[in-house]
């Protein structure tokens, strides 16, 4: 196998590559697994894309639970947060193996299979990183469905990752055993030497400009730096530090809500919804269906019903999350008002028209959860228009986009006898 001599770093080799690979061996499966869990959280009927939209790439669907309330906040936070923190490590790992991407493989089935897994792995992970970062930064900039593309690429990544692990794990174990981490961390730049001959080791290396411990510190420091700029996405007290993730930081700088009870992240503003102000003005009413006849309630009638208060999080697919104190009417009380004493599901619709998130279908657990609310107030104040006034859905562990705002109808179905 011929070496590409322009890759002449003296620290590149199987040991350093294996050191970069070891945390990825744990971290990348966590990112992938939590991403698939997040897709399950959307539910079969309202998954984005629908459950049958990406060929045969199906998941074993089950009803997403409403308890614990922080479940989706955890899975989405791990998926986005850990995925972003691992980016410097992924790039370092790609740097460490880049000579192999530019050399012709030996003509035997095992080597060809290993090279195919590497090409698919690199291509899929770069696609997932780029589209994922764009999605948390910008609003729907793709010329294709982000959900379709990200989901399909995730399966390519999982298959190629599994194949790559099977073919390269023995090499990684041997490489890690061949050199002492303690010794490498004690080796200064002046004493840094190339590893023994290997396809990743330059045959004619340049003088070292960084030790291996320096490379590990640089990558580790980069990960810590990215983590410091990301943690504010998921922590209300540190929201202003989320400098790389502006979509989830706070309300607009010129908003009248700054510093008030409604000053927390919003994905879709009232203006962006295109709803006519009159549709949610003084003439607004809520229609409940599922009983013998529709029941229509205005906001005063809703406020007269028993009110329940709960601190519940909202977590968005873009990665940000927040926890606020919501007050409103339990869905179970609304179901009884509609004439449905034992609801099986609830379909919630918004005054917004044409948005894929203007409808939410709740399973039984979500519908009957004691903390599932049609919220009228947040943090002791009326909802602002951006947060769903006159009324919005708040359900524990439900993805943020399905906590429908500007609700106008709720249809309950009866549990089967």
Automatic annotation (TrEMBL):
Keyword Transmembrane annotated: yes
GO molecular function terms attached to this record: oxidoreductase activity
CDD domains named in the record: SO_family_Moco (cd00321)
Pfam families attached to this UniProt entry: Oxidored_molyb (PF00174)
Keyword Membrane: yes
Residue ranges occupied by any Oxidoreductase molybdopterin-binding domain in the UniProt entry: 281-415
Signal peptide segment: none
Alphabetical UniProt keywords: Membrane, Transmembrane, Transmembrane helix
Transmembrane intervals: 20-37, 77-95, 116-138, 150-169, 215-234
Superkingdom, taxonomy of origin: Bacteria
Protein name per the record: DMSO/TMAO reductase YedYZ molybdopterin-dependent catalytic subunit
Organism in which the protein naturally occurs: Pseudonocardia alni (Amycolata alni)
Taxonomic lineage: Bacteria, Bacillati, Actinomycetota, Actinomycetes, Pseudonocardiales
